[in-house]
Amino acid sequence: MEIVAGVHQIRLPFPQDIPEYTNVYVVEGSKGNLLIDSGWDSSETLWAFREGLLEERLKFEDINWIVVTHIHPDHFGLANKLRDLCGAKVAVHVVEGELVESRYRDPDGLLREVKDELSVNGVPQAELATLKEVSLWMKEFASPELPDVMLSDGDRLSTGPLEFEVLRTPGHSPGHICLYERRKRWLFSGDHVLFHTIPHVGFHPQSGANPLKDYIDSLRMLEELPVNFVFPGHGPVFNSLKLRAAEILDHHEQRKRAIVKVLSHGLKTAYEVATEIPWKPETGGVAFADLVPWERRLAVFETIAHLKLLSFQGKTAKIERDGVAQYLARE
Hints:
This protein is an alpha/beta fold. It folds into two domains: 2-103 and 138-247, 4-Layer Sandwich (Metallo-beta-lactamase, Chain A); 108-136 and 255-329, Orthogonal Bundle (Arc Repressor Mutant, subunit A). It contains eleven helices and 14 strands.
């Protein structure tokens, strides 16, 4: 649908009958149209994109830029096929561009690093192989081609009437970007700010040293911007950025308190902490044991990210025994 004049949202389905959607946005301009994100590389996604363009009376050939907020497959997967159809250039932040090779083209080294990270944080051997390989199916739905243009924080992209500023917002992914149109007060937020769910922020081999600190710093930076509309990568468009940011920050404060409470009873690995705190608070809370394997891996990575931030803040300490990291509360 046309959300505001000249901005069209197309909802693209996930593969394998997963009941989720990625929002992509076509922004019209006198210099050609800008596409923000691309969805998964699947025939269903490509067909849905084609049908969305037809419904909005838009054309493939009018798209001359495809800007990807981050290289997770639900945002980057179809970008290169759309480039071929549109003749457009694909642009990502330079930090994300440098991860394409190890994530999609030659992932063996990354998989070993993921296994090592899970192992050192206490994942039992019986579960290690499953959690290591649980995301391999996604590789089928992402084209591994490198982007054409590497963006930097502060770069500007013009469609003619509109000028978008590239804002690096690390956390969910280390080179995640938002696009900000200052005159209209529009923020295209990718997965950095979502309305119904808390964006995943986890520590892993490609996350950076302290991803949750990066995420919170980025969110507080966005809070200072005058914003009329937020166009997220999933869920509804909304206009209450400051309120939503406050809710997300409160969630992380509650999660930190829950972790410190668990650690006040003794030394724990990140895996053990993850098993003792509730997940999916937006749905009322789910026990770790009731999560599917992919969600359990995300939960462990999120727990490590919180422990990294708590250690940085001096609220926890880490020791290693026999190659396994354990944490304790300082207060």
